[in-house]
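Researcher: I've got a protein sequence and the SMILES for flavin-adenine dinucleotide. Could you write out the 3D structure of the bound complex as structure tokens? I'd like something to compare against our soaking experiments later this week.
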Amino acid sequence: MIRKTDPQTIAPYLTDGSNFSGGSADEVIIPESVDELIIFLKSNDRPITIAGAGTGVTASCIPESGLIISLERFVELGNIINASVDVGPAVSLAQLNDYLEPSQYFYPPNPTESLASIGGTLATNASGARSYKYGATRDYVLEADIVLADGRALSLSRGDTIDQPLKFSDGSEESFPEISYTSPKCKNAAGYYVRPGMDWLDLFIGSDGTLGIVTRIRLKLLPRPASFISGVLFFESEEASWHLVSSIRNSDDEFINPCSLEYFDRRSLDRLKNKFEDIPLDAESALFFENDINLQEEYDLALEAWFDYLNGKGVLLDDSWFAQKPNDLKRFHEFRHTIPVMLNEENSRLGRIKIGTDMAVSDSHLLDVMRFYKGELLKRDIDYVIFGHLGDNHLHINLLPETHQIDQAHDIYNILVKQILEWNGTVSAEHGIGKLKKNYFSQMVGESSLEELRSIKKMFDPNLFLGRGNIL
Ligand SMILES: Cc1cc2nc3c(=O)[nH]c(=O)nc-3n(C[C@H](O)[C@H](O)[C@H](O)COP(=O)(O)OP(=O)(O)OC[C@H]3O[C@@H](n4cnc5c(N)ncnc54)[C@H](O)[C@@H]3O)c2cc1C
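Model: Sure. Here is the predicted complex with flavin-adenine dinucleotide in place.
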């Protein structure tokens, strides 16, 4: 086991994509095996924060105090067996994708940040562009090995439901408490997942490092599509892109069945023009789309169907980009990835903590929510950028206040939250609650539900050691 106590070697573990500062830890523990981890935990008496790759945006991996446990030595990648693969939690998405590249399989969840670790994506139930069709990390976790803060270990598989007690390696058992809280039905990553009769595994997925330490994960894989039709569509108005998404959802054309529908508002495009000079000057918004194709011989038919379909829908067709070669698809992903990176860099440069929303509503509120966001934001003179997963009614509004406008930015955030909750939406659809969104989460669920969720936390971690300051 490696132990780091020098503040300089601890410092890199005290940051993530939120630009949150003020974290503190007196030691980083790096176990080399599960046995070593268990032995350490059995005699530990300090709060623990689990470190992933530090790409989260809610400060959930940044400790308030105590120690950090980093699973960075857990980087095994097993053989592909029955369309599944065992991975260590520190394997990054990029490493997993490279590993799968020569095979006939692919791993669909693709949170834009490919440096994220699989353990971190499980703990946040991360999703991304392709979740529109393929779902979130939760849908691809088949099994997990978990160690609790007191050193008890368990292995969970699909089909182990909360109707049966949970059995630990030392013979002890825990039953799921009687609670009335259930998670919202829209895309959601806020707080613990709770549904009647669910798998125990689902409780740990999205628990933001507060219930257990994940040491092995078995992931489900899907057959790799033959290819993707993809493009970046530019629009003559913002409303035209919102309407296109509604229209695509209702389309019964077999070839209009995208897996990604990612939005960029005019302000995103203005920033992106610094790096992508061929963005048309008159574009008011853009959509990055990908449509997976199962049979290569259908590619041309599908492409033709897309061109026909887009006609007369407010798309600047002559100026839009369509992938002609594999590198183009890479470039479009890069285009999508660049906007949050640019904003995170801007925040770091200006010493500003990220003030970005991660809220989602159900399909029926897509147009309402877009008009509401624009209406509220245009009333103020705070700079902002809207981008994200329009197909899932899940936009990231990044508020970019000057120093004297920070309180005002939080006031706007509160106004947006209130309306989203009136529409039964969620305050976090993919990033989790972490340390930065607790206030919004408590508004979302209310005090009595929070108390119920605390009872789940105490069941697994009575000393409240793990992920202190996250979610609750
Ligand atoms: C530019 C950019 C774009 C992004 N785009 C997206 C996006 O499209 N979709 C999306 O969902 N997210 C996105 N994110 C957020 C981030 O990539 C995800 O939240 C990711 O899942 C975090 O993984 P990580 O390994 O960096 O975890 P960390 O940030 O290190 O940790 C996150 C949480 O996971 C816990 N954790 C880590 N490892 C374990 C483990 N082994 N066992 C138990 N708990 C653990 C930590 O304690 C913490 O609570 C983006 C981030 C950036 C910087």
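Model: The first helix runs from residue 7 to 10. The pocket of flavin-adenine dinucleotide is lined by residues 16-17, 49-57, 60-61, 71, 89, 111-113, 116-117, 119-121, 123-124, 126-128, 208-209, 213-214, 340-341, 344, 430-431, 467, 470 (CB under 6 Å).
Researcher: Great, I'll pass this along to the crystallography team.
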